[in-house]
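Q: What does the predicted 3D structure of Mannitol/fructose-specific phosphotransferase system IIA component (Ntr-type) look like?
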Amino acid sequence: MQIGLFLNGIDINSIREKMVQIKIQKKQRHFEENLRKLIVPELFEINNDIKNEVDAIHHMVKKLEAQHYVWENFEAEILEREKMSSTAFNLFAIPHSMEMHAKKTGLSVLISENDIVWSNKPIQLVIMLCFKANERQIFNEIFDPITIILSDINNINKLIKCREYNEFIETMVSMYNWKCHPENVQF
């Protein structure tokens, strides 16, 4: 970026744009670090055999239990939460417990090329959340950007095409922009 010898409006706008770009890049790096902490390769899966929400929840909870993320009652907590209100939206679901008492904070990701019937809705992406109470900060940092990213059907369509862990993480990071934290970027 070059600015003139005498600062003018165009230069000021160029500086502002560069500052916004730097802030977004810094937040993207932080977002990627958090994603890689929370979604480990063992918790990322492509599975085309799961047909419904109960099977998906059971399967994903068993993986979280095997990796020592959750207690044995986690599945019952997830199912209880689903009874209150479905966590399924446009092609995705974000099942979670109402409590933050997991052994470890993490996200389990399941992608299916086939529809999974979730509360009578077809979905293809499931992101199961489990959070430890003393790690609430990371929950606050990651949850809003993920929900903003998933609010765009084009983003969901890109994510369900991912076939491996790094591709999924990199795709999520590429979708992170100023909308994910608009209060922190001023124009």
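A (community wiki): The structure tokens above were generated from the sequence. Strands lie at 44-46, 91-93, 101-118, 121-132. The longest strand covers residues 101-118.
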